């Protein structure tokens, strides 16, 4: 029970939802979603507590599950600003959001990130899907994982499908 659950009268609902899940590890459903996803959103926070969020994408299956509590993914250079990497260097706490639009599911997972940038260590992962000589690999030890409310996912999915069917990108703003 937390203060928000008390303030907004959701203690019973939260307790019921939490009774169905082991939030200390990746569920089989979340593992299945991670294995087939081609993207996720990664939230980090600076040493001063300033939040950042980044899109992480790659070939479906680029995120690898090491065990029920550990995932691994390659990190490639983007615009050179390195907001997320810098954050992880000073504050390893991260959050990840995985969305399955097809099956209308959303999961979030929190964990402790480790940046692996030693090329000898990275070389042991080069046979993994999506690991085409990344300059870094991020390993996340999961501390909390839970299915998230799926409300309104269908609206985003329908908007994406409408956009794809329209194909007149200049009319969409």
What is the CA-CA span between the terminal residues?
42 Å
Strand order of the largest sheet: 2-1-5-6-7-4-3
Q: Radius of gyration over alpha carbons? A: 18 Å
In CATH, the topology is named Pnp Oxidase, Chain A
What fraction of the residues are assigned to beta strands by DSSP? Answer: 25-35%
Mean pLDDT: 90
**Shape verdict:** globular
CATH architecture group name: Roll
Instruction: Please state the structural category.
Output: alpha+beta
- Total strands: 7
Task: Let me know the largest β-sheet.
Answer: 7 strands, antiparallel
CATH uppermost class: Mainly Beta
Low-confidence runs:
none
Could you say how many structural domains there are in total? 1
The count of helical stretches stands at: 6
Indicate the multimeric state.
single chain
């Amino acid at each position: 029970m937390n203060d928000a659950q008390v303030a907004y009268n959701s203690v019973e609902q939260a307790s019921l939802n939490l009774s169905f899940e082991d939030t200390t590890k990746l569920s089989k459903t979340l593992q299945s979603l991670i294995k087939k996803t081609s993207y996720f959103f990664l939230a980090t926070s600076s040493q001063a507590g300033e939040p950042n969020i980044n899109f992480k994408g790659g070939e479906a299956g680029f995120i690898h599950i090491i065990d029920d509590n550990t995932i691994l993914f390659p990190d490639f250079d983007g615009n050179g600003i390195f907001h997320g990497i810098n954050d992880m260097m000073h504050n390893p706490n991260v959050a990840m959001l995985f969305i399955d639009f097809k099956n209308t599911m959303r999961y979030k997972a929190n964990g402790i990130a480790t940046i692996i940038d030693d090329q000898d260590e990275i070389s042991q992962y080069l046979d993994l899907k999506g690991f085409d000589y990344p300059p870094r690999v991020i390993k996340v030890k999961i501390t909390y994982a839970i299915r998230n409310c799926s409300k309104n996912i269908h609206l985003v999915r329908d908007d994406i499908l409408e956009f794809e069917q329209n194909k007149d990108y200049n009319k969409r703003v």
